[in-house]
């Protein structure tokens, strides 16, 4: 899988740098061409001689070679790379990458790289848990970088906790899995709705629901990683999209969500309606805050919101695939099958609120997928990213 791939291996100044030599050897054995870029402090932990001997290429560390003045172009390196792997990544380098502090060859190469970036942090457990590190890693994720989470175990400090750089074999596996993923949706346009809708009562109040948007964002990211061009119509949520190829359209109300969907559905090959759309909105919303005085028990009159999935189902042209969700508390299968038919869906993803770990706000989900061609596919409890994979695998069978 890595044969012929151009990999920039960034090494920073941490004890785990000694493992980078082994990682480099594994990459070379797998057939990759590897260019090592070291930070100045990485050289305190492992010598460039070892790494150039293993990679068969001079190690790059400075912007130019001192005695010849030869310029090392971080731009060329960034464009050459099919992937960049920073292992180990210290808290300092992670902070520089997150904030664009390009004061060494490694970070400038990172900022120039168009290829996917994999980051394998390694540090002491307290550094790893510090809010600054957590925030910086979150920023890297939001740029679409892949974080190879450190393992829990004994650290160089002899303390035991999370911070050990993932083993070189597993870093290679993560790269292989990435390259193994076929770009099965390349050339396809995918529309995804996510999150709740807010229906305005007055400038400070709304009717909404507990949807976190995590499932819809995971589907958008998975579709983009399979090569699709994704439009994500998102209600108000607190998630930053990670991954390239996702156009986020932020909306608030069900009516705005419908408008955005109608603008993009015509062009779409696949539409996945994951949003928890409010079924009702206040008939009138006030521009001024409704005051307590003089309103003992106000009654808010509601009107029905448009059914976005059903509207798109009615406008579907041959070849378009429309997928819905059903979140149920009882009569799950009957309700899901009913929605599959009445909204003219090709597939519906059922989650039952009776399953612990499924539904709103959690990082996991447990779903059963029903297809219009009569299949019922139960899945076990998985992370929402894995569930997104199952959903897209099933869509691909349609
Ligand atoms: N949906 C939609 N527009 C709405 C309501 C729901 O597009 N106004 C979509 C959801 O995104 C989901 C599917 O329809 O894909 C089912 O949503 P759900 O809330 O489970 O069903 P409802 O049709 O609203 O039925 P009920 O609330 O009575 O269960």
Task: Characterise the protein shown here.
The protein has 398 residues and is α/β, with parallel strands linked by helices. It has 13 helices and 21 strands. The protein has helices at 17-29, 48-55, 74-80, 91-99, 105-112, 125-129, 131-142, 168-180, 214-225, 254-265, 308-315, 332-342, 384-397, and strands at residues 6-11, 33-38, 83-89, 117-121, 146-147, 151-154, 160-164, 189-194, 199-202, 205-207, 229-234, 246-250, 270-273, 280-282, 302-304, 321-328, 347-352, 364-365, 367-371, 376-378, 382-383. The strands form six sheets. The chain has an eight-stranded mixed sheet, sandwiched between helices. A five-stranded parallel sheet has the order 2-1-3-4-5, with helices on both faces. It is elongated. The structure holds cytidine-5'-triphosphate. Cytidine-5'-triphosphate (CTP) is lined by residues 193, 254, 273, 275, 277, 279, 305, 307-309, 324-327, 339.
**How much helicity do the residues have?**
25-40%
DSSP summary, beta strand count: 21
Strand order of the largest sheet: 12-11-8-13-16-17-19-20
Major sheet description: 8 strands, mixed
Rg over CA atoms, rounded to whole Å, is 25 Å
The dominant shape is elongated
Indicate the proportion of strand residues.
Answer: 15-25%
Alpha carbon gap, first and last residue: 28 Å
Note poorly predicted spans: none
Bound molecule kinds, no repeats: cytidine-5'-triphosphate
Query: Mean of the pLDDT scores?
Result: 92
SS field, number of helical segments:
13
Overall SS class = alpha/beta
